[in-house]
Amino acid sequence: MADSTPVPESYYPDLKALQAIDFTLVELNLYLDTHPNDLEALKQFNSAAKKSAELRENFEARYGPLQNFGHSLSAYPWKWKDTPWPWQV
Amino acid sequence: MASSRKWYAPYISPHDPCPPLTPVSYETPVQLYLGFQPKGMEQFSPFDALAHGTLWPGLYTPYTNPYKTKERG
Amino acid sequence: MWYYEKKLQYPVRVGICNPGVAKFLIEQYGGTDGELAAALRYLNQRYTIPSRVIGLLNDIGTEEFAHLEMIATMVYKLTKDATPEQLKEAGLGDHYVDHGKSVYYHNAAGQKYDLGVQSKGDPIADLYEDIAAEEKARSTYQWIINITDDPLINDSLGYLREREIVHSQRFREAVEILKEEQSKKRIF
């Protein structure tokens, strides 16, 4: 069954690289919510956001869209609904 | 900083039905002491931050099962 | 509104096929101090908190949904390949009869999720409630770690416990922000 096709091995380290940079963004985001005037943290946030966008673009080219509702482009046929979902991998 | 694990000894009665399991531990993690986080605290790398659950070593307070720990301070 | 992101916040792994652990984990799914309760509490409180801390409640509330999904992932992986007999042995017989293998919003004792989410509309009361909620969720993670032998599950639980510490820290800072506001003149 097509649904059982496992992801390539590279999926896991690639996913983790994205999770790592996105986690840094979560932490900086919450920090900036209570430290809005920390310019260094703000610069770090913006540069990490650019880095995340790069990783995201590469990840989506390989494994399909990450976000719904038009925040990710899709190849044909519509890829968003494809497995695996996050809880399945 | 001092250990985030503290201990206390409940009163032991000769009439307690079970052998005493003392001392008893409780946790006092770093957010109880830090106050408003100062700017410029040392950071983990993105991968280490993910592994530790925080970007800042100064906010990291790990936990282990106290029933498996002999060290009591 | 919200957008869904097709990835977990943290790489969740389950090492041991032990469906009984799912029974403990479900406490953080549908329990009083669980991730669902946290998400709903913070997002609900956003509307009646001073503007300076709305962003924090919004963002922590959003992150809690990522944690809810991590818990569900562990429960799903532990139960999806279990036979009814194994579920029964694991103490999940009642769950199976009522819900099959679906993940469900109840606590470890099987009580349905009760929307007992606190929101007083008083900023200080609400933020102290939130700090307490983070500390209670932190202790729940500690109790589950104490009762669980799977090092991979405990790795994810250790991560989630540390998130409670960081959230508690930020809520404590939010209280300080509002205390400073009090000493200033009213500016609209």
Automatic annotation (TrEMBL), chain A:
Q: What keywords tag this UniProt record?
A: Capsid protein, Virion
- Limits of the Protein CotJB domain: 15-88
**Any Pfam family:** CotJB
Classify the source by domain of life. Answer: Bacteria
What is the protein named? Spore coat protein CotJB
From TrEMBL, chain B:
Q: Which Pfam families match?
A: CotJA (PF11007)
Q: Which InterPro entries does the record cross-reference, listed alphabetically? A: Spore_coat_CotJA
Kindly provide the name given to this protein in its UniProt entry. Spore coat associated protein CotJA
UniProtKB/TrEMBL annotation, chain C:
List positions binding Mn(2+). E35, E64, H67, E134, H167
| Family from the record | Belongs to the manganese catalase family.
Which keywords describe this protein according to UniProt?
Answer: Calcium, Capsid protein, Manganese, Metal-binding, Virion
Question: What does this protein's record comment on cofactor binding?
Answer: Binds 1 Ca(2+) ion per subunit.
Upper lineage is:
Bacteria, Bacillati, Bacillota, Bacilli, Bacillales
Query: Per its UniProt record, what InterPro entries does this chain match?
Result: Ferritin-like, Ferritin-like_SF, Mn_catalase, Mn_catalase_dom
* Essential cofactor(s): Ca(2+); Mn(2+)
Question: What would you give as a GO molecular function for this chain, any one?
Answer: metal ion binding
Binding residues annotated for Ca(2+), in chain numbering: D59
Q: Which domain of life is it from?
A: Bacteria
Q: This protein is called what?
A: Protein CotJC
Gene name of this polypeptide: cotJC
